[in-house]
Write a structure and sequence with these properties.
Layout lengths: L2 E7 L4 H14 L3 E4 L21 E7 L6 E6 L4 H12 L2 E4 L4 H21 L13 E2 L12 H8 L5 H10 L5 H15 L18 H4 L5 H19 L5 E7 L14 H8 L7 E7 L18 H10 L5 H18 L6 H17 L7 H12 L4 H13 L14 H13 L8 E6 L3 H15 L5 E3 L10 E6 L4 H9 L6 H15 L3 H13 L5 H13 L3 H17 L8 H21 L5 H21 L2 H16 L5 H13 L5 H11 L6 H12 L4 H5 L1 H13 L2 H16 L3 H12 L2 H5 L7 H15 L6
Parallel strand pairs: 1-7, 2-5, 2-7, 4-6
Antiparallel strand pairs: 3-4, 3-8, 9-11, 10-11
Length: 782
C-alpha cells in the first residue's frame, strides 16, 4: 500500500499554501490528488505555462446549456494552485478527485427545476424561468452552508473572529508542517464526530432525493463529494505510486484518511445512479474582487490583496518585514491621492502596529493592527482616504490571463482576436473610454462593443459623456467580470465568429420581438453594430403593414427616425428603414385620433408618452410632408371634445411651440378647458399636458396666467383638494426660478398680470440713450 498523506487546507489561505509547498517538498510524492473537478485534468498541464497568470478559474459548463456552469477559482496563494504547480514542476502526476461535474451540473439542474415547480404551485405563480447562476466551487471546503467549522474551532479557542484564529493558530504556528496538518485534521474530526451516516440520494426506483440534496447544511452533497474522493484515492492507491499527497478542504480531511474509510461498497452505493450531463471545461481569467466575500463566493476571502502580500513576502521575511512593506504600500497609495505620508510616519505606524499586536496577544501585526495604525498615523483618523486603499490593496484589482494554447470556443477565440486588434484589454475595475467614430480604430471598437451587447455579453455599457447623439463621439464604461466567460460560451450557439453570431442572434430576436418598438430599437442596435438589418426591416414592415394599434405604431417612430437622421454618422444605408418609417408614421397619424377617444387615466398617460416620443422623432427628420400630416393629427387631438385633457392640452402646446396657433386661440381653448362645466380632474390634466416641459408660456403670457389663476381661485374646497396633487406634480417639474417668477406675478394681483406696458416719454429719454450709445461706441446721429 502506498503512503497516503492528507493535507487539509483552507481555500485561498496563504499560510495553507506555504504549508502545502513545505509538505510537498518534504514528502516528494509521486502523485498529487487535488480537490477539484476531474473534467479539468485534460487541461491541468496549462497551469505550468508561463502565460498562465493567476487569478484564474477552471470553468466547467453544460454543453447544451452553458449557463449551467461551475467555476473553480485559483489565486497565486491558493493551496490547490501551489500543489498543481509543484506537481508540474517536479514531474509528479496530478489529478482532481472531487465529484465529477457531469453529475454536479445535472444535480443542480434538477434542483433548479424543482424550485421553479414549487414557485409555480405557490400562492403566486412564477413569472417565468429565471436565469441560472453559475456556481462557484468548491462550496463546502472549509465552510458548509449554515455551519462554519473554522468558526467553531475559533469559538472554542476564545476568538470571535475565525479569520484571526486561523492566522494565529495555523498560519503563524511553528513546528513540523505535517504535525500541523495532523492536528487540524484531528480538530475537524472532533467536530464531525456525531455526524449521522450518509444515505443514498438515489432510490431503488432511480428517483433522485431532491429534498436531501436541497438541505441548507449541504450534508448530502458533502457525502457524495467525499465518496467520490475516497473512490479516487482507492483507485490511485492501486496504481503503484509509493507516496500520495491529497490536498483538500480541511473539513474533508478526516473523511479522507484511509484508516477511517467506509467500505468501497458503501461509497459505490452513495454514487450509484447519479444523473449525468455532457460538460466541457476551459480556463478563464478571474479577478481579485471575485475572490472576496462581497462577490457572494462562499469559499472566498475578504482580503485577497492582503493574502497575496502575505504569501509573497512572508516566505522570505519576518512578520515585521511583512508589516513594514505593507505600510510602505499604503503610504504610496495615499501619496497617489495627494495625501502626505512621510517615511517617518511609516516608521511610526509600524511601531504602533507592533505595539497593538503585543497588547492584543497576537504573534505579530495582522491586517487589523495595520489598518488601525494606518488610520491613526498615516490618515490622521480620517477613514475616507483609506477606503480607496482598501479597494486597491486589501482587495486588489488583479485580473488573470490564460495562455493562447488554452482551449476556447471558436467565438471566445474570435473575441480575443478582436480585443487584441482593437487594443481593448479586459480589466476588473471599471474604466471609461471615449471613442471617435471618425477614425477606423474608434469605429472598430464601437462595433465590437455593440455586437457584444446584442449577444448578451455586457462588457461595456454606454455612458452619458455630454451630447453624443448624432455626433462622432461615444463613451463607454468597461468592466470585465468572470461571468462574462459563461456568456461568451452561451453565445457560441449562434455562431463561431462575432459577426455571424450577432447576425444569427438578431434574426432570432426579430422573430421573438414582442412589438414594433422592440423591432425599431433592434434596427438601431444593428446599425450601430454594423450588422445586416434586412431581415429585421422585413419583419418590421410585415408587422407594421397589418398593425392597427396606434400606441405601438407611435412608439416605433422615434427609434426609426433616429436611425434615419444619424445613420450617416457611420456611413450606413438607411433607405429600407426610411420606407418603413414613412408607412408607420402615416398609419400612426390615421389611427391616433380615434384611439385617443374615451380613455382612462392610465391609458391616456401611456398614449401621451407615445405621442411625445413620435413628436421628437418626426421633428428630428424635418420632412415637410410627414410634419404637415402630423400637425393635422395634433390639431384633431386638440379640438376633439372626447379626447382626455392630458392629450388635448399636450397637442395644443405642441402646436403653439410650432407657431401653428396664436396665443388668442390658445387662450380660448384654455378658457373652454377650464370652464365651470368641465370636469376638474380633466381640466387639471389639460393644464399638465399644456405646461409639460417648461413654464415659459405662463411667464410671458399674462392672459394665460390670469385664466389659470381665475380658475384656481373659483374652485370649491372639494374640487381644489382633488386637483391640488395633480397641479403640484405639474409645477414641481418647473425650475425654482420659473416658480418664483410665476409667484411674483400672481402676488402682484390680476391687474399687474394683465396691465398694459406704461407709456414711454421718448423726448425725456433722449439724453440717456445718447449717453449709453457713446459708452457702447456707437455713432450718435442728431
Amino acid at each position: 500500500m502506498p503512503d497516503v498523506h492528507i493535507l487539509g487546507i483552507r481555500h485561498h489561505g496563504p499560510g495553507s499554501a506555504r504549508s502545502v509547498a513545505e509538505a510537498l517538498d518534504a514528502l516528494a510524492p509521486t502523485l498529487v490528488l487535488i480537490e477539484g473537478a476531474p473534467e479539468l485534468d485534460p487541461i491541468a498541464a496549462l497551469a505550468g505555462d508561463p502565460d498562465m497568470i493567476p487569478p484564474v478559474a477552471g470553468l466547467v459548463y453544460a454543453v447544451d446549456d452553458p449557463r449551467r456552469a461551475s467555476f473553480y477559482p485559483l489565486a497565486s496563494f491558493s493551496p490547490e494552485w501551489v500543489a498543481l504547480r509543484w506537481a508540474l514542476a517536479n514531474g509528479s502526476s496530478v489529478r482532481s478527485i472531487d465529484l465529477p461535474e457531469t453529475h454536479g451540473v445535472a444535480i443542480r439542474q434538477r434542483l433548479a427545476q424543482r424550485e421553479l415547480l414549487e414557485e409555480a404551485d405557490g400562492p403566486e405563480e412564477a413569472a417565468g424561468p429565471r436565469e441560472p447562476v453559475p456556481t462557484v466551487q468548491p462550496t463546502a471546503g472549509d465552510a458548509r452552508q449554515g455551519r462554519d467549522p473554522i468558526a467553531a474551532l475559533a469559538g472554542a479557542a476564545g476568538y470571535d473572529d475565525p479569520e484571526r484564529w486561523w492566522e494565529d493558530a495555523v498560519e503563524r504556528r511553528e513546528g513540523s508542517v505535517l504535525e500541523r496538518f495532523a492536528a487540524l485534521s484531528s480538530a475537524i474530526a472532533e467536530l464531525r464526530r456525531d455526524e449521522p451516516a450518509a444515505a443514498p440520494v438515489v432510490g431503488q426506483d432511480g428517483d433522485l432525493d431532491l429534498t436531501a440534496l436541497a438541505d441548507p447544511l449541504g450534508t448530502a452533497m458533502t457525502a457524495l463529494r467525499e465518496a467520490a474522493m475516497r473512490t479516487a484515492i482507492r483507485a490511485a492507491s492501486k496504481g503503484g505510486d509509493e507516496r500520495i499527497a491529497v490536498v483538500c478542504g480541511a473539513w474533508h480531511a478526516p473523511a479522507l484518511e484511509p484508516a477511517s474509510f467506509p467500505s468501497a461498497a458503501a461509497d459505490r452505493l452513495l454514487l450509484r445512479g447519479l444523473p449525468k450531463a455532457k460538460v466541457a471545461a476551459a480556463w478563464v481569467p478571474w479577478t481579485a474582487s471575485r475572490l472576496s466575500y462581497a462577490s457572494g463566493y462562499g469559499a472566498g476571502v475578504s482580503s485577497p490583496g492582503w493574502y497575496r502580500h502575505l504569501f509573497e513576502h512572508a516566505r522570505s521575511g519576518s512578520a515585521s518585514d511583512v508589516a513594514t512593506v505593507w505600510l510602505v504600500k499604503v503610504a504610496q497609495e495615499l501619496r497617489r491621492q495627494g495625501i502626505d505620508a512621510s517615511t517617518a510616519s511609516v516608521v511610526e505606524a509600524d511601531r504602533l502596529a507592533s505595539t497593538l499586536a503585543t497588547v492584543r496577544g497576537r504573534p505579530g501585526p495582522g491586517l487589523d493592527e495595520l489598518d488601525d495604525a494606518a488610520l491613526s498615523v498615516l490618515a490622521d483618523g480620517n477613514p475616507l482616504p483609506l477606503s480607496l486603499v482598501h479597494d486597491r490593496l486589501v482587495v486588489g484589482d488583479d485580473i488573470g490571463s490564460v495562455p493562447a494554447a488554452a482551449p476556447l470556443t471558436p467565438l471566445a477565440a474570435d473575441l480575443e482576436r478582436a480585443q487584441r486588434a482593437t487594443r481593448l484589454k479586459p480589466a476588473a475595475h471599471p474604466q471609461t473610454v471615449t471613442l471617435d467614430l471618425r477614425t477606423d480604430a474608434g469605429r472598430a471598437r464601437s462595433t465590437l462593443l455593440h455586437r457584444l451587447r446584442l449577444l448578451g455579453i455586457p462588457w461595456g455599457a454606454p455612458v452619458d459623456a455630454g451630447r453624443t447623439t448624432g455626433t462622432f463621439k461615444e463613451a463607454w464604461e468597461l468592466a470585465w467580470s468572470p461571468e462574462l466567460a459563461v456568456a461568451v460560451v452561451e453565445a457560441s450557439v449562434y455562431g463561431t465568429t462575432l459577426a455571424s453570431a450577432t447576425a444569427a442572434k438578431v434574426a432570432q430576436d426579430a422573430r421573438d420581438a414582442p412589438d414594433l418598438a422592440a423591432l425599431s430599437e433592434l434596427i438601431s442596435q444593428c446599425l450601430l453594430a454594423e450588422t445586416p438589418v434586412h431581415d429585421v426591416v422585413a419583419r418590421l414592415a410585415e408587422r407594421a403593414a397589418t398593425h392597427t394599434d396606434a400606441l405601438e405604431l407611435l412608439a416605433a417612430i422615434e427609434p426609426l427616425a433616429t436611425v434615419c437622421r444619424y445613420g450617416n454618422v457611420r456611413g450606413v444605408e438607411t433607405g429600407e428603414v426610411r420606407a418603413v418609417l414613412d408607412e408607420t408614421a402615416v398609419r400612426a397619424c390615421v389611427g391616433l385620433p380615434p384611439a385617443a377617444v374615451a380613455l382612462d387615466d392610465d391609458a391616456a398617460t401611456a398614449l401621451r408618452s407615445a405621442v411625445e416620443s413620435a413628436h421628437r422623432g418626426l421633428t428630428l427628420l424635418e420632412d415637410e410632408d410627414l410634419l404637415q400630416r402630423w400637425w393635422r393629427t395634433l390639431g384633431e387631438l386638440a379640438d376633439h371634445d372626447r379626447v382626455p385633457g392630458l392629450l388635448s392640452g399636450r397637442a395644443t402646446r405642441m402646436l403653439l411651440d410650432a407657431a401653428l396657433l396664436d396665443t388668442d386661440t390658445v387662450a380660448t381653448r384654455m378658457s373652454r378647458a377650464l370652464s365651470i362645466a368641465a370636469d376638474p380632474a380633466d381640466a387639471a390634466g389639460w393644464i399638465d399636458g399644456f405646461l409639460t416641459g417648461d413654464a415659459t408660456v405662463l411667464i410671458h403670457d399674462p392672459a394665460l396666467l390670469a385664466l389659470l389663476d381665475e380658475w384656481l381661485g373659483s374652485a370649491g374646497t372639494d374640487v381644489f383638494d382633488d386637483i391640488l396633487p395633480l397641479l403640484r406634480r405639474t409645477f414641481s417639474a418647473f425650475t425654482p426660478a420659473e416658480r418664483a417668477r410665476i409667484g411674483h406675478r400672481i402676488s402682484d394681483g390680476p391687474s399687474a398680470a394683465t396691465a398694459a406696458a406704461p407709456d414711454v416719454d421718448a423726448a425725456a429719454a433722449q439724453a440717456g440713450l445718447r449717453a449709453v450709445a457713446r459708452l457702447l461706441g456707437w455713432k450718435v446721429v442728431s
